[in-house]
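As a warm-up, study this chain.
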Amino acid sequence: MIKKGSYFFGLTILVVLVSSGFNSYEIEKVEGFHLGENEKISYSVPSENEDEIEIESSLVAVPYVGKTFVGFKQALAFKESRGILNMVNSYGYMGKYQFGKSTLRSVGVYDFEEFLRNPELQDKAFRALIAKNKWELRKEIKKYNGKVINGVKITESGLIAAAHLGGAGSVKRYLRSNGQRGFKDGFGTSLRSYIKKFGGYDISHIAPNKNAKAKIS
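Now compare it with the structure written out below.
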């Protein structure tokens, strides 16, 4: 009888100890990884019948300019001035594309202060200069396009960029001398570097025009 009573007494003590051990254990919750008492999991996925337009509207549009004309003008503006609209360098070249005053006059721009604060006018002047240089270099573009001079493939956009740097006349001399008669601006930038850096862009939609002007509509 004593042995039986001791057995039940010992079993009771064991149960109490085990229970108290579990009760003292607390689960540590990491903020943001657990639901609160009144929270529940809720999520949804697109169904097969979901409207395509609604799906597209939730996407983030990431522009890709690549080798387009937009890519060409942005790359050249960044190279010339880091894209700063009112930049005037130590040689007097102005705007994000760095125009000289004589070049601006050739595309019909005479108000230089207005030019420096007007992004539309600067873009118009840039397009007009491309059209003029395309006309000046029309024969060279046709003759040298695809050829390799000084290890650099000749492309239309590369020649137009080089003309922006040093003028169409300098580009003609460079090509006709097979790259022997080079040109460098006041900062040491060469025609070859521009032909290489700005090669392969699509600027075909701008037609050659000897009398192109920057006109604001």
